[in-house]
Here is the input.
Amino acid sequence: MEYFDLDDPFTSLKEHQSDTISALFSSESDHIPSQNCFQCLKNSDFYVSFRQQAISLIFSVGQAQYSCNLDPYTLYLAVNYMDRFISRQEIPQGSPWVLRLLVISCISLAAKMKEIHFSSSNFQREERFIFDAPAIQRMELLILDALNWRMRSITPFSFISFFISLFELKDSSLTQVLKDRATNIIFQASNEINLLEFKPSTIAASALLLASHELFPLQFQSFETSILSCEYVNKENLLKCFNVMQEMMINESVLDCHCTKSETESTTCTTAATAMPEKREIKRRKLNGYCSESNRFARFNHVDKIDSARFSVPNVLKGKKSL
Here is the structure.
């Protein structure tokens, strides 16, 4: 498989030819979740919860010691596959293993695109559900079919270098600082469901404007003018996306301050707290492993190895959503 450079498809500014840029902007809509299903996903408690759990699991893999070779861009690509898949494919409720299998398969596909080794067995060694290679391959094929085999995803990272070139910054160190901050904002925004309605280029432009407002407030107006004057940018959508992203950052800042305050208060009360016996038990969440229609899945009381002989993924994921 040909190597796919997700974070920066342009190796130099000289490659920013108008035809290449135009093709990138015109095809980005093919690499985002189905817009007809966006409102359905947003208003469904099940899908909101499913997506949050999936993203949390995907990025937890990157933090695990045995998966340190998975860079954040690979994990972001896996999230892109997952979002596009669940916007086109019905997900059965009451089958907690589906989420695990989908996450493993999306990460596996993303790792293959980035030519990074990913061991599904290592990922599953502490998991309750264990899937064999044929089961994962079946799920990968289902994902590929739902995504029409468009795996070279166009993401916000594909537009960062292009938009930065509009700023005409002479100091390369400032350029890198701005790029790094915008990249971090995009990673932070991966869990924000309200951003699914925007195109990758709009998210990239909004992240850069937000980063420039934080780092170079005196030059913000100049940066804003440069991006708004770009022929490929929809001003109304950019403003809406910027506001959503800015509100997200404010909420995270408030949450961080609250957590910091709580930690301080907790430290102050440590002596008193340790003198009191604990009266509450920590309740662990348990996955419900209900039987499928054909009774092939009994309630799980221990680690259960799920192999391709016990189920057929297409039979469990019954049909595509109406687009």
In short: Confidence is low (pLDDT under 50) at residues 10-15, 267-304, 306-311. Strands lie at 129-131, 304-306.
